[in-house]
Amino acid sequence: MHGNDLTNRKFGDYHLLRKIGGGAMAEVYLAEQHSLGRRVAVKFLKPELAHDETYIKRFVREAKAIAALSHPNLVQIFQTDCFDGFWFIAQEYVQGQTLQELIHREGALPFQRVADILWYVASALEHAAQNGIVHRDIKPDNILLGDNGDVKITDFGLARVSGSNGSATSATALTQIGMTLGTPLYMSPEQAQGKPLDHRSDLYSLGITSYHALAGHPPFRGETALSVALQHVNQLPELLEKLRPDIPPPLARIVHRMIEKQPEKRFQSFYDVQLELRELYTVYLNDTEASSRLGGWDRFFIGCTDQRLLATTEKLQRVLQKENQLKNRQHNFRFLGLLIFPLVFLTGLTLGFLRVYSMSDPLEKPVSSRIAKRDTVSEQWVYACILNTTEAWQSILDYFPEEEYLWGRKAKRQLIRCYFHEGTRGDSINSLPIFQEFANFSDIEVEDQALGLAGLAWCAAENQDDMETAKEYLRRFYELNFSYSDPLLVQILDAAHKTIQRKENNGNL
Q1: What does the alpha-carbon distance between residue 61 and residue 182 come to, in Å, rounded to a whole number?
Q2: What is the 3-state secondary structure (H, E, C) of 406-438?
Q3: What dihedral do alpha carbons 282, 283, 288, 290 form, nearest 10°?
């Protein structure tokens, strides 16, 4: 608007009170809406863009797309219109501050506060992604923190809205001439390189935003936008756990996986981020207040994934019903077979005798039964939860090797649990390869690394009677120097200590 201040001007039902923000495409004013007696934020398309049909269509279409969304963590759109040549969007006004303002004032934030904000923003972006919208400018400035505790995403000015077939609509996919799509400090590597984007780009930007909030500064900084963009493409960030030793290792892992350079190595949805956060709250932090503090907690597994977990569970129920029916039929056939067995015994014995000599290998072992493969890894996971056997958990690793990082690692933890509780002293032999793999993880995966070292100590003492090696693994475990509350880790660590003590006491008798 080239220095023109619209304060105190009236636009239809709106009286502009003061300017409260702005960006490359628009400026935002706090306004009073007379008809409803409420305060709203009014965003005006800049005059130099208001004469370009492309930008006007983009402005209106995106406003309508966001208005069609209904989510408590997205700023609500009330109206879009043109008055006296000014195109504007009237939207919800959030009284409070931006995440950027909070970080600027307080520096690195408590990890619990960051985890809560991450939960809310991930929930909103999952809803947007499910409706074909990629924000493309997630950053602390665009996350509003209300004085009442609300967390809301704003400024969809750079959003890409996809059509029903998933492709970007022509009016909204156009590159803005002379403007940078996104903010260099938070843009994804594929965004910096001008490659096609999907929701995983927003996921990366949210990860960088979370890193900034936890560390007090973004992971990459430079004198020019180009130098920062190149760091996003080529440079690894400093580990959060080295900057903030108080951060729970699972939270650091979540953030670092969000900011993987390659989209396929990140979480594949914001739902997966929330799934990991829920585990962080319940298992690691034992946060009993999370369910009442975090919006959508009770509705999470249904509200976030009508087409995922709920559909998966219902589908598996139908599958299991069919399998039970088949088993019942087989049972009936077996019963019938017992009735007619005496009549066919001699015939069967004769044919069986002849067949043994016609077989190439009469001692060949029968093929062992296997767990049926499901359509998706989430279905396989729910099926494994129902069966809860080592074979069921192993099926996740066998059928979905591409899901190794998230589902595969969780399945291996379940295998460890099954092996550990098998028999009177557990199955240390079968669990040994998993413990070895976990023990070799990097420092960023310290919780799994610790589980591996504790398990190796248990295996060395229980299976190999090598107390010195067991003690060396425990020494390396304690050198990790982190706080832990994982029940499985605590149990295995306790078993390692007790096994060492028991065998040393027996040796001294």
Answers
A1: 19
A2: HHHHHHHHHHHHHHHCCCCCCCHHHHHHHHHHH
A3: -30
Residues 6+ apart with CB under 8 A from 203: 125, 258, 266, 267, 270, 273
Looking at domain 10-92, which of 1.20.140.10, 3.30.200.20, 3.90.870.30, 3.30.70.2750 is its CATH number? 3.30.200.20
CB 153 within 8 A of CB 99: no
More confident residue, 170 or 397: 397
Domain spanning 96-298, CATH class: mainly alpha
- Please, what sign has the CA dihedral across residues 83, 86, 91, 97? negative
- CA 428 – CA 487 distance, rounded (Å): 18
- Residue that is written with structure tokens 């909204």 in the block: 172
Our CA angle for 7, 10, 11, nearest 5°, is 115
Q: What single DSSP character describes residue 371?
A: P
Residue 138 near residue 205 (C-beta atoms within 8 A): yes
3-state secondary structure of 26: strand
- DSSP secondary structure string for all residues of 488-505: HHHHHHHHHHHHHHHHHH
Catalytic residue list contains 137: yes
Question: Per-residue pLDDT tens for 153-164?
Answer: 988 867 776 653
- pLDDT tens sequence across 436-487: 999 988 766 788 899 999 999 999 998 878 899 999 999 999 888 776 767 8
Sign of the dihedral through C-alpha 311, 314, 320, 323: negative
What are 14's two structure tokens?
A: 């709106």
**Residue 165 pLDDT > 90, yes or no?**
no
Q: Which of 211, 230, 239 is nearest to 140 (CA)?
A: 211
Calculate the alpha carbon distances from 8 to 15, 18, 19, 35 in Å. 6, 7, 10, 17
The DSSP letter of residue 281 is I
When comparing pLDDT for 422 and 101, which is higher?
Answer: 101
The single-letter code of the amino acid at 104 is: H
Q: What is the pLDDT of residue 443?
A: 63
Q: For the chain, how far is it from start to end, CA to CA, in angstroms?
A: 89
Q: How far apart (Å, rounded) are the C-alpha atoms in residues 257 and 204?
A: 9
Q: Where are the domains of the chain?
A: 10-92, 96-298, 377-508
Report the C-alpha gap between 121 and 113 in whole angstroms: 12
Positive/negative CA dihedral, 309, 315, 316, 318: positive
Identity of the residue numbered 303: G
Residue 273 has pLDDT above 80, yes or no: yes
Calpha distance 164→378 (Å, rounded)? 25
How confident is the model over 136-143, as a mean pLDDT? 93
Residues ≥6 apart with Cβ < 8 Å to 202? 125, 128, 129, 134, 135, 136, 138
Among 5, 52, 137, 375, the one annotated catalytic: 137
